Amino acid sequence: MNVLVVDAANVVGSRPDGWWKDRARAARRLHEQLMVADTAYDEIVMVLEGAAKGGVKAGRDAHVRTVHAKGAGDDTIVAEARAALGKGHRVTVITADQLLRALVGGAGATAMSPSWLLDQL
Fold first, then answer.
1. How many angstroms separate the Cα of 11 from the Cα of each of 32, 33, 86?
2. Taking the domain 2-120, which CATH number applies?
3. I need a labelling partner for 43 at 20 to 30 A (CA). Which of 23, 63, 64, 121 fits?
């Protein structure tokens, strides 16, 4: 199984389209794009933190599972990646955060940039 873990704050923040005015709406827009995207991933895990959590309820919608970070989003992203790796899944994490990329890479996941994901959408 191929799992994509999305650092939603990084993806949304990579485009200067006014997302900072309404973080919940920006999260909802990304969720909608992920729902209709034709990707090679069996499951997409979108991690939300802060005000963005107001845009999409936690839970599963078809192949997209939204997770609300209880604390730091990075900790939740690492935990989601490790859990999927622990089940023997191939995991790709979308983030621009270099420390986070190193952490998930050390666990066995592949890290790709937000621009890579946006090109897929």
1. 14, 12, 25
2. 3.40.50.1010
3. 23
Dump pLDDT digits (tens) for 93-115: 999 999 999 999 999 999 999 99
Instruction: Take residue 20 and report the two structure tokens written for it.
Output: 């900072």
Query: Which residues lie closer than 8 Å to 54 by C-beta, 6 or more apart?
Result: 23, 24, 27
Classify 16 as helix, strand or coil.
coil
Instruction: Output the six-digit token pair for 42.
Output: 């069996």
Please state the pTM of the whole predicted model: 0.94
Q: What is the DSSP string of 49-68?
A: -GGGGGGS-SEEETTEEEEE
The HSE-up count of residue 84 (CA atoms within 13 Å, CB side) is 25
Q: What share of the chain is helix, strand, coil (3-state, %, to 5)?
A: 50, 25, 25
Domain boundary assignment for the chain = 2-120
